[in-house]
Amino acid sequence: MATAHNPRRRQLLMAATGVTALLTATGCGAADMSKQSSPYANVGGAKSVTLSVQSWVGAQANVAVAQYLLEHELGYHVDTVQVDEIPAWDALSQGRVDAILEDWGHPEQEQRYVKDKKTIASGGGLGVTGHIGWWVPKYFADKHPDVLNWKNLNKYAKTFKTAESGGKGQLLDGSPSYVTNDKALVKNLDLNYQIVFAGSESAQITQLKQFAKQKKPFLSYWYEPQWLFNQVPMEEVKLPKYTDKCASKGEKDPDSIDCAYPTTPLQKYLNADFAKEGGKAAAFLKKFHWTKKDQNQVSELIASDGMSAQDAAAKWVKAHPDVWKPWLR
Amino acid sequence: MSATTTRSRTDPDTAPSADNTAAAEARPSLLRTLVSSPTVRKLAVLAVIAAVLIPLAHAKWAGAGWPHALTVDVSGPLEKSSDWILDNRDSHWIFLYFFGHISQAIITGVRVVYIALLALGWAGVTAGLTLLAWRVAGVRVAVTTLVSLAVCGVLGMWVPTMQTLALMAVAVTASVVIGGLLGLAGGLSELAFRVLRPVLDTMQVLPAFAYLLPVVMIFGNGVPGAVLATVIYAAPPMARLTALGLRGADAGVLEAVASLGATWRQRLLSARFPLARKELLLGINQTIMMALSMAVIASVIGGGGLGDRVYQALSSVDVGKALAAGLPIVLLAVVMDRTIGVAGERLGAPPAEGGSRLLRGWPAWAGVAVITAVITVAGRLSGSQTWPGGLTVAIEGPVNQFKEWIVDHIYTGVPVVGGTAEWAANYLKWVLDPLREGLQGIPWYGILLIVAALAWLIGTWATALTATAAMAAIGVLGVWEPSMDTLSQVLAAVVVTLVLGFAIGIWAARSARLERMLRPVLDVCQTMPQFVYLIPVVALFDVGRAPAAAAAIVYALPAVIRITAQGIRNVDPSALESARSLGATQGQQLRQVQLPLARPALLLAVNQGVVLVLAVVVIGGLVGSGALGYDVLFGLAQGDLATGLVAGVAIVCLGLMLDRVTQPTARRDRKGA
Amino acid sequence: MATTLAPETPDSPKTGDRTPVFSVRDMWKVFGPKADRVPGSPDAELSAADLRARTGCTAAVRDVSFDVEPGEVFVVMGLSGSGKSTLVRCLTRLIEPTSGTLKIDGEDVMAMDKARLRDLRRHRAAMVFQHFGLLPHRSVLDNIAYGLEIQGMGKAERRAKAAEMVEKVGLTGLERRRPGQLSGGQQQRVGLARALAVDPEVLLFDEPFSALDPLIRRDMQEEVIRLHHEERRTMVFITHDLSEALRLGDRIMLMRDGGIVQIGTPEEIVGSPADEYVRDFVRDVPREQVLTVRRAMRPAKSDEEDGGPALTPGTTVADAIEAVARSGGPARVVDGGRCLGVVDHACLLSVVAGLDGKEAAAA
């Protein structure tokens, strides 16, 4: 029996030694989560860049073109991860994502990560200006031009009623990740509307397209640049004018906002380490700068022509070397 | 009472005289019988409690909905802790020395597997996995594996598939090890079992969605959090089945083993584990299936891989793309399910007689390794590591066209039955809205009382207490109204699911042909991740609660059908035979014999239906079902812990409550059929 | 009650002064709360029902003393619930006895530590179970080799040994099957082979054949008899089947409610039942098959000492009847050339009719 046990004891001893060695090797020291990158990054010798791709198509267009150029012109491998806007800041700070190419303005996050912790660096402007607002379809606005003033919205509440909105008019909102003051606006402007959250942009787009096909009236939270305007022409409803006073009031208490959305120059952000050590890729992403028209071209190829993002990017890149050549210099 | 006596008096012909006397004897004792009936007694106790408490509650906090005075605002502390975590994640010791190492270990693990898979190349991986499937489960499964992997490649999903495989490998290994150890404790120690069982039972009924937020809070977006959420979700079935398997081992065999002088360890390794191998294997299988389904949902928190592709496609309403990414997931699930299933069947059987010696034992394994290595090298030499781009087919276009065609044709204006848009509108108008208004209109104590009564009738006072406490917790957290909204969606969808499920299940139980036709469909449906169901329904049912309901019904239906059909078919044939010998018609047989005898199975079907529907209704937040699911999404999207976590807890409470009020006293032993 | 009938030093027909294989004294096994307080207390005298009512305990084995001699087949018989299965498990402490002494070959089993006890189970006493207790995931051969594996024997060696056992119990050709593919009888042969493989000093059988069909049961009994003839291994055999007990047992211990009712040879049990319970039990036994002429004979008259056929004292009455019927006259019972007595029609008939037992009971 003793002989039967001895090898087993030896095995145990070996296992214990192994575990100890492993622990020593991995280091029982600190493991900073904010410095850990994605397990899929830099595999197989290829230098890789991880880009955050947001759910809307404009952002996909940025990423597609950046990815195409990084891969074909600079020889990187690009991973894309879909992360919602605010978690993306966190992921960027931790280095799980290297860059966000289109940010719609998150002052709180900017304060925390860029100014305080310095884990994220600004990557400059994208060149595109974003605007959020309320929109109605053109076919409806043409017939009822007065709907374009918010003061008349209550008159049309009945028209915009749906099964989901109960007795009130329906204001269709999109993804929960989007910047929105709509709840406060509906309340503060005394509108007889119910906000229905589509839950995702895709759901919202599907719904809008479906409405358009039926030529039904709708009122929707929407934004530009957006390729959908090419398929479903829409007109913006004028909300009370955006002022600095209203903005500063809203900063203190988001529930008190009662004016339109501002116009935002969209920003790029890079992980601070990546910005420093990212070499050509980081330099390229900092220079990435194009117009609303460029972005819309790619967006539309993806969204309405049903091209894959990479094909769309390839097509655009081929046609516009004058735009992207300077980014590589 | 009077009904019985009247009948026996006025209708002596149909009532045999024995009945007569029985009724006569029963008369004086009927009151006593009533009192001694547990149902009546429980209701009476509840009535007394209600009579005392309701006037009090009503006087103090009248009106529908949860009284504001009874809520606790937890958003302050939650926001503070969320800020604290963000500020200290790179400095505090608990992150640096504990969570940091967990996270690093997961990253390392996933990375190692991923690199290995990429190093094998598509040729090596395909050959290796196919040969593995052949060794473990035979030629048919091997062919399935080969075809499935080829499809993954052809769809252009090779790299995401490998990422998902890497993530799954780590998550499943961790789940099996952790679950196995917990199960071992539960299987060997009575005390551990008593502690573990209710916890595991509860964890298994919770929607996957509820696990995401706490994990994200600590680990942030990315693979570590995704793996961890997956482990939390997938380990319980392993633990539970391991414990049950070890406890269920044939006592006679264990005694025989002890009588031969086996040590504790010999007993465990040579008898207890092998005897529980069916359960262990089932546990592994369930763990894999749940991990796969969670790996997809975890894409919401940055899990990457195939799930991320589905998620991306879902954001751009691209049914074709979603299908291209969803199909590999389904195929992976089917392959793993089959492989383990066949391996399980083979466990009991002796090794096949005949055949070359080279096909058995270690030479075969060595052969597998050698062939894989050769093919890997060949693949490397030919210069393609990932699936060759020329060998891919884009299915997005045709699929989307097909979808458009379907939507165009059944969305609206279909004669007689109406289109899906009309269904959705009617469902909202006539079912969901009244139900929601009803639930939100009932005073809060009324709801609590109903929950307590239902739970007590079906279980014990402890069940009732848990269910009521869970419900009250929802109120206290201040999310009563959205919870009632979610509840109304769940209840309505459950009713539809059960009506359809029972009908099809009964039919399938009686028709072998239908059953044969249904089986592969149900198999695939049950292995499909919840996410995949959301894609097509938006197009058909508009944004809102209707598509969520539709997805939930489609998702829960297979389990309900299967359990119902099995329950009815497993009814003791002698009981049925005796009914037939008495000349019962088909309908009578069904009503009087099959359904009553299949009652436990039907109750289980109800329970499963409720749990599964809840899981999808919550994910329905992605397609506009609003309420709690939206709040969780909002919390995830905005990093708003206060909203998200509270909604998550409310979902947990709802799940707990729903499970308890549909849980027959005899607890089920496994999930699904 | 019944315990008074248990002899302090049971004598066996075949023993000299060799050490008994098992020596059990005053053994109790009580199940229930505070079971260890029952033996020796006044409660110990209570009937099963009263004990249960008073203390919540059940005495499965109460105050049992007996010896198992080397080489004998010792049968423990009783109806279900009589405590016989518990008793046999107490012999290797698979069930821990509550009190009493237990020795194997003179060594105190109760004092053994875990390792020593394992050694006892591995090498000295092997058990065959009613429900076989085979490992369903192992082949027949590996099941048989299992006991050897537990002992730490190498694979080749134990397989070779197991192969021998396969032949011994007549399972040749089935080595690679799984237990699930065998009939009940075949499975029990595997169980038997597994027990034999470790070459134990004593075999313990716990109702091994009750789950089998009658015909197969008979085959298996023959098998056990044959094995016993070949190897003379000591066996303790538990059964509830009287005819099985009578067929196999050198001595039979009859149990009821945990206590011993009677210990004796089959002939003693059938011929001289200790009480009404035993008498009832053996009522339907074909006495002529069990009782011998030793019991039936009467002293020979002087003219009978030389004539007629000669029978040994161990001849059953049934055989004697045949001999007497053939010869037409009384037959002599001869042991070592000495005439012990004679049997004639009358005395044989009185045995068959059960009239002889009356005197024994009266005495």
Query: How much is the radius of gyration of chain C in Å?
Result: 23 Å
Strand order, largest beta sheet of chain C: 6-7-8-3-9-10
Tally of discrete structural domains of chain C: 2
**Can you tell me the overall shape of chain C?**
globular
Q: Specify the CATH class of the largest domain in chain A.
A: Alpha Beta
Number of helices of chain C: 16
Question: Could you tell me the number of beta strands of chain C?
Answer: 13
How much beta of chain C, percentage-wise? Answer: 15-25%
CATH homologous superfamily label of the largest domain in chain C: P-loop containing nucleotide triphosphate hydrolases
In this structure, how is the largest beta sheet of chain A organized? 9 strands, mixed
CATH C-level label of the largest domain in chain C:
Alpha Beta
| Assembly level | heterotrimer
CATH topology of the largest domain in chain A: D-Maltodextrin-Binding Protein, domain 2
Uncertain stretches of chain A: 1-5
CATH topology of the largest domain in chain C: Rossmann fold
Keywords (chain A): Lipoprotein, Signal
GO molecular function (chain A): transmembrane transporter activity
GO cellular component, one term (chain A): ATP-binding cassette (ABC) transporter complex
Signal peptide (chain A): 1-30
Note down, in words, how this protein is organized.
The complex is a heterotrimer of chains A (329), B (673) and C (363). Chain A starts with a helix and ends with a helix. The longest helix of chain A is centred in the first third of the chain and has 25 residues, at 2-26. Chain A has 2 domains: 44-128 and 265-328, Periplasmic binding protein-like II (D-Maltodextrin-Binding Protein, domain 2), CATH 3.40.190; 130-263, 3-Layer(aba) Sandwich (D-Maltodextrin-Binding Protein, domain 2). Chain A has helices at 2-26, 57-72, 85-94, 107-117, 138-143, 182-188, 201-214, 228-231, 244-252, 272-277, 279-287, 292-303, 309-319, 321-328; strands spanning 48-53, 77-82, 99-103, 120-137, 169-173, 193-197, 219-224, 234-237, 263-271. Chain A contains 14 helices and 9 strands. Chain B is built from 29 helices and no strands. Chain B is globular. Residues 1-26, 353-358 and 666-673 of chain B have low confidence and may be disordered. Chain B has helices at 2-10, 17-36, 38-60, 75-88, 93-137, 139-154, 158-188, 190-205, 212-219, 223-247, 251-259, 264-275, 277-297, 305-315, 319-348, 361-381, 396-410, 420-441, 444-458, 461-476, 480-510, 512-527, 534-541, 545-569, 573-581, 586-597, 599-619, 627-638, 641-661. In chain B, helix 8 packs across helix 10 and helix 19 (444-458) packs antiparallel against helix 20. Chain B is mostly helical and 673 residues long. Chain B folds into 3 domains: 2-56, no CATH class; 117-347 and 360-402, Orthogonal Bundle (MetI-like fold), CATH 1.10.3720.10; 434-569 and 601-661, MetI-like fold, CATH 1.10.3720.10. Chain C has 2 domains: 2-286, Rossmann fold; 288-362, CBS domain Like. Helix content of chain C is 38%, strand content 20%. Chain C has helices at 48-55, 84-91, 114-124, 140-144, 146-151, 155-168, 184-197, 214-231, 242-248, 266-271, 276-282, 287-290, 293-296, 317-327, 345-352, 356-362, and strands at residues 22-31, 58-68, 73-77, 99-104, 107-108, 125-128, 202-206, 234-239, 251-256, 259-264, 310-311, 331-335, 338-343. Chain C has a 6-stranded mixed sheet with strand order 6-7-8-3-9-10, with helices on both faces. In chain C, strands 2-1-4-5 form a 4-stranded antiparallel sheet. Chain C has a 3-stranded mixed sheet with strand order 11-12-13. At the A-B interface, strand 2, helix 3 and helix 7 of A face helix 5, helix 14, helix 17, helix 18 and helix 28 of B. Chain A: Pfam families: OpuAC. Chain A: This is Putative glycine betaine-binding lipoprotein. Chain A: Residues 47-318 form the ABC-type glycine betaine transport system substrate-binding domain. Chain A: Residues 1-30 form the signal peptide. Chain A: It comes from Streptomyces himastatinicus ATCC 53653.
